[in-house]
Structure formats: structure tokens, C-alpha cells
Amino acid sequence: MTGPMRIAMISEHASPLAVVGGVDAGGQNVHVAALAAGLARRGHDVTVYTRRDTTALPDRVETADGYAVEHVLAGPPAEVPKDELLPHIPDLGRGVADRIVDERPDVVHAHFWMSGLAALLATRGTGVPVVQTFHALGTVKRRHQGTSDTSPPQRLRIERAVAHDADRIVATCSDEVAELVRMGARRTSISVVPCGVDVEHFTPTGPRLELPTTGRRHRLLVVGRLVARKGVDDVIRAMARLRDTELVVAGGPPAAEMDIDPEAVRLREVAARAGVLDRVVFLGQVTRDRMPALMRSVDALVTVPWYEPFGIVPLEAMACGLPVVASAVGGLVDTVVDGTTGLLVPPRNPEALAETLRRLLADPVRREAFGFAGVDRARARYAWDRVALDTESVYASLVAPSAAVPPAEVAADDLDELDDGPTIDLTTR
Ligand code: UDP
């Protein structure tokens, strides 16, 4: 192991302290929390900087997992949708710069494109190397969501500048590497380290969750934020072709608010039109501590997003011994081994999905074999301790004396423009 490093992470919208499952709180929150904890376990001094989105929390929180979270005032101390955060990023960069001036970190690791921008602003002229994990790419989002993409129009341009100026990019899967290279990133500046799964928490043995049952023979599970691109409506449509099967949908707002959540209301309508509403159970947000028990109480996990930068949910399901049926997109192609830990299907194709699920549900031996293989794969390749070790190696290659790190060049006009304070022009060029 290298000597202890001082590591600053920036995660602008995704606090490791947040409750996950809502619209803007998902895999990134889980990733940052687990990676910070894994690095702290390895003896490093880790602080995560995140935007203050409430007045209720102190400036600095020491977590029980050995790392600290600092809340930086940048914009109103209230919830702001992530697509509206860009104007506040220069303040976040300045806030982080102020806090690291006395205790210079060895490396700054930014999560998501806006954090990358904040990291480059915060480290300008300091020589502190910046590592960037995008979690999701604007180019991919734009390709799939077209005009319904609500990201700020500057995203693609700034993302390219961040990819260019960061000292190292950590991609989470091979599909992302191809996308980054297509965006103009140098292949030699990219390392691949996947997201991980908490294999102590997500285990095949343990309690099962008591669920409101509809009395069907088979039970399928979908877990995720209720956003259109997760493809939950395709699973609901597939249900029309599956007999004696119920579907449990976990995610979205807390159960009490499901009646007013637009996406939950839309999905209920899809279920009603498909004639399967009596076989679909919407649980709303499920807390992390109950997730393994929920996963153990079903026959298979289904995840068929249109696209997926990584996808932690299928890994969690594999670690619980579940067969996974996933769309063959993004990170899912790396994690789910077709015919070994589950089955890959084309995205946005309820007919193909129904046929695959029908055959899998009819074959308990195959389901069990997939489950065993999934546990092995999750433990061998995706335990957070391994992910933390691989991430540490990336940091070490940048901070080693021989690496001769030049100061981070924030040459792009884009970044200067953003650093000009409240009068900045954030319109598209
Ligand atoms: N999650 C949760 N409760 C919910 C819905 C999701 O704890 O009700 C967790 C889920 O277990 C996983 C994360 O949120 O750890 C979602 O991560 P993923 O990478 O699959 O999707 P993302 O939300 O990042 O698109």
C-alpha cells in the first residue's frame, strides 16, 4: 500500500449522506459514500465536498465510516434540481479552494461533470492533480433523450473541456471508454475502475421482506429511480405476456407521495392500459437497509434501461444471488455475463423481454445457477475494497514523485467564463 494520502472528493449534487431513491439521488451517492469509506479503511484522509442543500447540517460531518463530509455554500441552501446547478458551480469551486488552501490535498477526485469543473477551478495553479469520474455523459444522454434532455446546453462543451483538462479520467466500464475517446479524450488518460457493491450488506442469505403479495407464483423486481430512461414501462408492458407473475417496483418518492409523483402516476396508467395493474406493486422508496431483504424475496431482478452509465442495482442483485435480466447497454454489458449470471435483452423491446423472462421463470435450475455465478462474480470483482484499491493505484500514479505532475491547465475559455462570478454568461454558444 502507498502511504496515506489526503484525498478531496467533490460530489456537487450527490451527497454521500443523502437518502437514495429520489429523482436526483441514486448510484452516485452510493458510489461516493462507499468509495470514500473504502479509502478511509485503507488509511487515507478523505473529505467529500458537496453543495449545501439544507441549513440543517453542520459545515463538517465526521461519518462513522471514517471520512468527512463538508457542506459548501453555493447557491441557495435548499434543494435545487441538478440540471439547474451550473450557475452555482463557480461558487462551489471557490468554496472548495478556500477550504483546501491550508491543508493541500494530494489529489482531488471529482464526481459528475459539474464537480469536474469545480475541481479544475479549485485547483487552478496549485499543481494538485484532478481525477474525474463522469458517472454519466451528456453526449449519451442527449443521444437517447433528444429534446427532452433537461441538461444545461453548455454541458457537452464543458464536459469535453473537463475530459481534456483532468489529469486522469476514471471510466466505470468499457462502453464509457469508447464514448470518451469519441468525445476526444486521450485513451492514455483513461483508467477503468468499476463501481462496486457492498458484499457484506448484499448477501444471498438473511431475512426476506414481507411484501404485499398478489398471490402469483412468480415475483419479479425492478429497483431504481422512477425516471423514464430506466425502462420500467417496458417491464410493465412485458407483464401482459407473463402469466401467474407479479412485479414489484421499488424506487421513487416515499410511499405516501406516490399518488402525486408524475412518473409513478404515468406508470400506473401504463399498467392499467396493459391490464396488469392488479399484478404490479409500487413500493416507493425502499431504504438501503431493507434492500437486500427485498431482493432475497423475489425470483429475478429486471433492469432494462434505454442506456445505463454503470448500474449498481444489478450488482446488488447478483450479490444477493438473484438472476438478472438486463438490457445490453452501457455498464450492464460488463457486469451481467449473458448466459452465466443472467440474460441480456435488447432495450425498449417488451416482447423480447417477456419471452426471455417466460423462459427463465420456467427454469428454476437455471435461475439458481445464475444466482450462484452472480454471487461469485460480485464478490470476486466488485467488492468495494477492491474498487478502493484500484482507485488508490490511480491516485498513486499521479502523486508519485516520479510522476512530475504539471499544474492543472484550465486553459479553456469556458472555464474562465464560468469563473467570472454572478455576471457570467451561461448561454449556449
Ligand atoms: N436505491 C435505493 N432505494 C430505492 C431505489 C434505489 O436504495 O428505492 C438504490 C439502489 O439500491 C442502488 C442505487 O439506489 O444502490 C441506484 O443506483 P444505480 O447505479 O442502479 O442507478 P442510478 O440511480 O445511479 O441511475
Characterise this structure.
The longest helix has 19 residues, at 364-382. With 429 residues, the protein is an alpha/beta fold. The protein has helices spanning 27-41, 89-100, 113-123, 138-145, 155-165, 174-182, 232-239, 262-273, 291-296, 312-319, 332-335, 350-361, 364-382, 384-399, 413-418, and strands spanning 6-11, 45-51, 60-62, 68-72, 107-111, 130-133, 168-171, 190-192, 218-223, 245-250, 280-284, 300-303, 324-327, 342-345. Mean pLDDT is 92; it is low at 402-415 and 419-429. The protein contains 15 helices and 14 strands. The chain is globular. It has an 8-stranded mixed beta sheet with strand order 3-4-2-1-5-6-7-8, sandwiched between helices. Strands 11-10-9-12-13-14 form a 6-stranded parallel beta sheet, sandwiched between helices. 37% of the residues lie in helices and 15% in strands. Helix 1 (27-41) crosses helix 14. It folds into 2 domains: 6-196 and 383-423, Glycogen Phosphorylase B (Rossmann fold, 3-Layer(aba) Sandwich), CATH 3.40.50; 218-382, Rossmann fold, CATH 3.40.50.2000. The structure holds uridine-5'-diphosphate.
